[in-house]
Amino acid sequence: MNLELRPLTQADALRIAEYCNNYNLYKTTLSLPYPYTLEDAKSWIEMAEANAKEQKSFEFAIVEQASGLLVGVVGLSQNKANRKGELAYWIAEEHWGKGYGSWAANAILDFAFREMNFHKVFARFFANNPASGRIMQKIGMKEVGVFVDDVYKEDKFVTAHYYEILQSEWQLRRGEAALGAGAGLH
Predict the structure, then answer these.
(1) What structural domains and CATH numbers belong to the chain?
(2) Residue 86 forms beta bridges with which residues?
């Protein structure tokens, strides 16, 4: 796939605000506000930059290589003490169904397990967004629970499905030998 990940910059704010001010995207995400403003985007990017410096979480722009067009964002939180993190992503509605989410989620698993030496990555999706669940399945994650009425959104409770993958499971899928502590890309 002709995509790449890169750190977010303030130059992305206008495009992010445009994409995220979309009710169809909002209703499938955990924490996006709606309506979503340019100020929301600028503030979020600033927070993402600070979190990356402190290695709390990592947010990357998903970009088409040929055009340089940002098509979505993928992120990974970090719980250092437990060597795990949460995978999260969104793709602009006009780019749904093109495989961008699966590609980006796979790239973040590579980052999590090779670069950060995580033991586990988990993710969750709302029951009203089964396409996100299919992405998780495609990248080898397994459902570990259904949390009924887990999140209060739009004056009602929403059910969330939780998925995870262990580093050892990821390695088996890739046919790799076990990675030791401090492992990275070579």
Answers:
(1) 3-174 (3.40.630.30)
(2) 122
